[in-house]
Each structure stands twice: as C-alpha cells, then as structure tokens.
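hi! just following up on the protien thing from before. the input was this:
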Amino acid sequence: MVRGIALIVVAVVLGVVLLHSTDRSTSFTAKTKAASASSPTTTVKPSTSTTAAGGPTTTTTAPAGAHDPSKVAITVANGSTVKGAAAKVGQTLAASNYVLKPATNTKTAASASVVYFTAGYEADAKAIAKLLTPQPAVSAMPATLPVADLQKANILVVVAADLAAGH
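and the predicted 3d structure came back as:
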C-alpha cells in the first residue's frame, strides 16, 4: 500500500516537472512501436482539472519512448568518496519501481554525476535524472565503461560528490 502511494506521488511529481518543461500550448506526441511494419502515432494533450480546494491539477503521460519502470534495469555506481551514496540513490529509484542491480563502485573517481543509457533507453534515462537532486547529466553509454560490470543493466547511474551530497 505504501509503495503504491509512493509510486503515485512520484508519478504526479514527474508529471508536473514534465509539464513545466514543455510548452503548454502544443500537444504531446508519443510514438509507439507496433508489431507490424508501421508505427502508429498517438497525440495526447495534457488535461487540467480543479481540485476540491479550487486549485488546478494537471495530468500527463510518461515521456515518449519510456519503458515501464519495472522493465528498466539500473546499476548505480558510487564514484564519490561518500560511503553508501550509490545505495541511497538506488533507494530513490527503487521507490519508482525501477529494477536495481547490486550497487557497485566506479573504476576511478567521477567528477560529475551522469545517467548513462543503452540504445533505446534515452527517455528512461531522462526520467531517471529528473528523479535525482541535483539533476545529473544524461549521456549515451560510453564505449569504455566506468564500472567493471554493467550487470546487464539498461541504465548506469554514476554518483559523484554532487549527487552524493544531495542524498
């Protein structure tokens, strides 16, 4: 029950952040992959309603191309000198229902936090970065990994001192 409430709260916060980062006058276009040769396009406009207190509430959908969090595997690597920083960041992501691989350390110290993604997971990496404070950069997975083993993860979150201090 608590996990469900936490997931709803995170979804609402993520929706608000996404709405504020887009122009309200345009519609949101999500492209989905179909089993057939053609790919249908769905247009979703954010809806606005009023709460019982009279204030507006806004509802939105996940970013285009993002996967269900329960289908996204994440390795969190500590690249800072703060013990347990990767585990703390991992707890934040687990609350959003992401699949966490065991926390690890980077091969060398990281100068800044980064959310790396494998092909097809850029939208997920951006959504994950928005869950973290301060929000780290998002980048494609480098050819030379900063960790010994990616553990078959789709996303690698490298925690540097900037993100370690926020958690």
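The chain has a mean pLDDT of 78.
DSSP finds four helices and ten strands in the chain.
cheers
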